[in-house]
Q: What sequence folds into this?
């Protein structure tokens, strides 16, 4: 339980009414009970407060909390930012028992930091270094020479490959794979893809067998990075793939070999970034965005969802569409496309008298 006063203090917000009132959790206004704080941070949620049983709520800045029948309230100047604080206040942390579970398999040469918690069936390879207070959930494997920073949280089934180096306060959601082999293959003679790129045509009658190019690099991840469930970051071919400090990666994201991602980027679900892409600082990639290989995306750019980037993007640009162009240009293209059936009908009507000038009614 936490009092309204303490919660407001943690959120950096204003508490009103009975600030000694204690709440156990947070809920939507219509389903909140007496021990919940209702999240009604916009006026459109006011009507739902009457449907629930909450005595306290987090409200928009100029809300009349007494008129809403509440005993206490917290005013939120910026709803979504306050929501992040609410999540921290009521978080239910993963249950990973302190110490090392007896079923964990840890190589004698590995080093486990003070206060680390390692769950059942974890496998830690030779010369691995685990930081202080790291929490590693069940069925995680960490390969040889990997480094995991202090205060990391690695959830169920994560795979960390050989020589991967990860900074402090890292979070990996279940099933993430860090440091898998890159998707690099070549044919003894120029193959279909190389010919198509060079000439725009294909003359080869038979495709030769592909030969693997092994990835000799690894993956380097900065501080305060999060990687979502079932996302994959391939290691570099020669140099390392790099993820900058503060970057957040959603679920089901693919980052190819040699990719370099800047600081404080946001990469949303199902985005796919091909090999050797360079992404600047503070870039946002929307859901299911695609980036072709060897592309550079400048800092502070936004790639909207479902867009496909096939050419370099300068800094500060908003890109949309498939292929991606400037957002304002894409909007004009879309408007023109919507008008196309009407324009074609007018063109057909105008052509009829010309095609048959002798016709009479």
A:
């Amino acid at each position: 339980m936490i009092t309204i006063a303490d919660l407001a203090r943690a959120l950096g917000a204003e508490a009103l009414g009975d600030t000694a009132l204690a709440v156990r959790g947070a809920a939507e206004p219509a389903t909140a009970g007496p021990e919940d704080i209702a999240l009604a941070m916009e006026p459109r949620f006011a009507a739902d407060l009457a449907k629930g049983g909450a005595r306290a709520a987090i409200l928009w800045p100029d809300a009349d909390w007494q008129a809403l029948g509440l005993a206490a309230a917290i005013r939120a100047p910026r709803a979504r930012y306050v929501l992040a604080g609410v999540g921290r206040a009521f978080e239910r942390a993963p249950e990973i028992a302190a110490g090392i579970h007896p079923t964990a398999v840890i190589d004698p040469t590995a080093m486990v930091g003070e206060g680390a918690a390692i769950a059942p069936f974890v496998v830690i390879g030779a010369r691995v270094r685990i930081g202080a207070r790291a929490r590693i959930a069940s069925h995680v494997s960490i390969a040889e020479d990997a480094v995991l920073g202090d205060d990391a949280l690695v959830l169920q089934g994560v795979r960390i490959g050989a020589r991967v180096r990860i900074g402090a306060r890292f979070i990996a959601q279940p099933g993430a794979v860090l440091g898998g082999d890159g998707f690099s293959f070549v044919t003894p003679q120029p193959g279909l893809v190389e010919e198509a790129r060079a000439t725009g045509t294909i003359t080869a009658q038979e495709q030769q067998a592909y030969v693997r190019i092994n990835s000799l690099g690894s993956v380097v991840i900065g501080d305060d990075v999060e990687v979502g469930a079932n996302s994959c970051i391939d290691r570099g071919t020669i140099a390392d793939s790099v993820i900058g400090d503060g970057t957040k990666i959603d679920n089901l994201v693919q980052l190819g070999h040699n990719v370099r991602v800047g600081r404080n980027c946001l990469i949303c679900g199902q985005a796919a970034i091909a090999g050797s892409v360079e992404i600047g600082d503070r870039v946002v990639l929307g859901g299911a965005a695609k980036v072709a290989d060897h592309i550079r995306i400048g800092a502070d750019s936004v790639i909207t969802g479902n867009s496909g980037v096939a050419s370099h993007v300068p800094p500060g640009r908003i890109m949309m569409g498939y292929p991606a162009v400037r957002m304002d240009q894409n909007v004009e293209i879309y408007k023109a496309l919507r008008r196309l059936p009407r324009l074609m009908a007018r063109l057909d009507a105008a052509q009829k008298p010309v095609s048959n000038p002798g016709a009479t009614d």
User: Anything to note?
Assistant: The longest strand covers residues 36-40. Residues 66 and 274 are 55 Å apart (CA to CA).
